[in-house]
Design a protein that fits this description.
The complex is a heterodimer of chains A (111) and B (114). By secondary structure, chain A is mainly beta. Chain A contains no helices and 11 strands. Chain A has strands at 4-7, 10-14, 19-25, 32-38, 45-51, 56-59, 62-67, 72-77, 86-92, 100-101, 105-110. In chain A, strands 2, 4, 5, 9, 10 and 11 form a 6-stranded mixed beta sheet that branches. Chain A has a 5-stranded antiparallel beta sheet with strand order 1-3-8-7-6, with no helix packed on it. Chain B has no helices and 11 strands. Chain B has strands at residues 4-7, 10-13, 19-25, 31-37, 43-49, 56-57, 65-68, 74-78, 87-97, 100-105, 109-113. The termini of chain B are far apart. The chains are: A mainly beta (111), B mainly beta (114). At the A-B interface, β5 and β10 of A face β5, β9 and β10 of B.
Chain lengths: 111, 114
């Protein structure tokens, strides 16, 4: 099955700085890569996703890049704000509408 | 729309007790899922149901059973709870969205097995 690795497990940045979270996947058939944000005690919520026919996607302060050859994808958050503090999960889908999640990155934005 | 709802929110069980976690969605999604979330391990798929009447095992199915009661409801049953099943359980449903499957999660059930 698919194996998704996520790094770093924790990340602290100063408010206004950028944050980057990286994930790798093992199954070359994976073609859909969503990112979820989970605030403390809340449910995971989709923040951005990318499909395998696209190399980069941006939505305001967040962007995701995908390198299919190297089997890795990354989340970039610019101009970080305290409300960006949360746990972020990457995921990969090799089809059949299943997702395989990374182990999460706890992002702390220091005011 | 309520989206995905789960009951109960919290539950404490003794080892060997049984219980059923309930999940319902009102988004007319075909696919539904049960995950468990443990510290440092992300979300792991227990069972999923691609459509009404079908269920399949995920990554960690041992000790659990599921029932897709109808299109809206997907329940998870622990027949004989063990301390290793202490976790937060999330139900999700999904829709196909431009070549990908966006999953929507319920609020979660926190389960403690003593």
């Amino acid at each position: 099955g698919e194996n998704v690795e996520q790094h770093p497990s924790t990340l602290s940045v100063q408010e206004g700085d950028s944050a980057v979270i990286k994930c790798t996947y093992s199954d070359s058939a994976s073609n859909y890569f969503p990112w979820y944000k989970q605030e403390l005690g809340k449910r995971p919520q989709l923040i951005i996703d990318i499909r395998s026919n696209v190399g980069e996607k941006k939505d305001q302060r967040i962007a995701v890049t995908l390198n299919k050859t190297a089997k890795h994808f990354s989340l970039h958050i610019t101009e970080t704000q305290p409300e960006d503090s949360a746990v972020y999960f990457c995921a990969a889908s090799p089809g059949a509408n299943n997702l395989f999640f990374g182990t999460g990155t706890r992002l702390t934005v220091i005011p | 729309n309520a989206g995905v709802t789960q009951t109960p929110k919290f539950q404490v069980l003794k080892t060997g007790q049984s219980m059923t976690l309930q999940c319902a969605q009102d988004m007319n999604h075909n696919s539904m899922y049960w995950y468990r979330q443990d510290p440092g391990m992300g979300l792991r798929l227990i069972y999923y149901s691609a459509s009404e009447g079908t269920t399949d095992k995920g990554e960690v199915p041992n000790g659990y059973n599921v029932s897709r009661l109808n299109k809206r409801e997907f329940s998870l049953r622990l027949e004989s709870a063990a301390p290793s099943q202490t976790s937060v359980y999330f139900c999700a449903s999904s829709e196909e969205n431009r070549g990908g499957w966006t999953q929507y999660f319920g609020p979660g059930t926190r389960l403690l097995v003593l």
